[in-house]
Structure prediction request, 553 residues.
Amino acid sequence: MQKIAIETRGLTRRFGTQLAVNSVDLRVPEAGVYGFLGPNGAGKTTTIRMLLGLIRPNAGEVRLFGESLAEHHLLLMQRVGALVETPSLYSHLTGRENLEVTRRLIGAKRELIDRALGIVKLTADAHRRVREYSLGMRQRLSLALALLNNPALLILDEPANGLDPAGIHEMRDLIRRLPTEFGITVFLSSHLLSEVEQVANHIGIIHQGKLIFQGTLADLQAERHEHLTIGATQPDKAANCLLAAGWSVLRREDGLLTVAAATRDAAASINTLLVGRQLEVFHIAMAQASLEDIFLNLTTPTEKRKAA
Amino acid sequence: MTIFRVMHAEMLKLKRTLAFRMVFVAPLLVATLQFFVLLQRHKFSADFKLWDSVFRMSLNVWAVFLMPLLITLETALLSGLEHGEKQWKHILALPVTRRSVYLVKLFTAHALIMLSTLFLLVLSFIVGLIAMRLRSELANSGWPDFVWVLKHAGMVWLASWLILAIHTWISIRWASFTVTLGAGVAGTFFALFAASAKAGKYYPWLLPVNVFSEERLPAALLLGAIGGVIAMALGCWDFVRRDVI
Prediction:
């Protein structure tokens, strides 16, 4: 039976009247990368803060490695490293001194500093003050802080935020290496499926505080459905026309429309409908939904899709 | 013990900070003032007691004005180290107790204020020695009463526990430097008006200087120390239960 690193049951958190996290049941298997996906404001950071004991849930429970976080917070945090949102660094200190501050706080061995610097490839710049670091270097140093105590579980909240493409590539490589080379379970939050699907083997999708999907990447891919992509000269008008006729329509960024239909007859009747309304159709094709489409379908509110 | 580990880490954070430099800058201001006051004085009466004057004036100026402002600044700067890049979320996700993190912030502020007060005494002593060299009528002033000096410096520090605890709580609770400094400046400013009022003996920002008044001394020590311990406990309780958003 697969061991579980993170398990939440009915995890709920309110801010005033707003339900930020609504009865979330996470199950994160050990020694893999779990991608925690959701649009901005979906409840990812609030969930992560509850996993780390930074904020208390209104209801529900967090269990790490089978133990209750509320009861064994200090013991469990010895096995957890975290990077929450932006890097938390002392810019007047050097990279090595920043690690030394955390080392003193957790009472770790001094040699772990060199190991952490080596993993994130910052050994050569460790003597420089952090205020001289680029954003990518700061992000890597934050990761080194999270890795300092040789954690069994690493929780990363939007680690690619603000990084340039090269930085994102480096971060991705690093995250991929962690479970295989160091046996670390990685729980990674992001609002970009394209980012997560390259490193994660398990996915959880949160939307408006609710966990709407959880499973392996293969499970998510099984959700793919065939659909039609339509290109028309006036996409807004075409979308409204199809919506009025009862079709489910999603407006894509490239101006094409995605219609939940997968038969030749459907394609023919849609074409007839649009042409009959004096709209020129220049593209009509059957296609399989990408993971991005599935994600958008799961997380885009129906009203917004209709408005498209 | 966790608290020693946290204190050890806090010492390193102080490296190259304004918080540490201010420990030496603030007493230097008092000593400089003291030096010019002595130098500019035309005449010294026969019963003028150099050491009594030097230390009494230094400690009075320190207690009524500079120390409360320094406490405001130090607590703001110490907490600012964590507010700056939202370090709270990193520190409090580590295996350290929140209680120890809060107490270490307060104890560090205590240590810096004590160090600063001791530096003030050293500088005042040097100012006295220089005055003895420059003004022949002061040459036979003898030695200061070190027991009196250390006792009063200790009492000033003891009476400051309450404002140290209040300012530590404010500076940790609000990330804004303006709020923290505003509270300190307002507290010190109102002390000027509260000084002559009867209730002034209970005003937290006046407690340190009240140790120089026989009538107000007991209240200053009791309220300063006991109030400081109670305010520390309340601040710590608030910090432990607060969410880190």
About this structure: Chain B has a mean pLDDT of 94. Residues 39 and 131 of chain B are 7 Å apart (CA to CA). The first helix of chain B runs from residue 2 to 13.
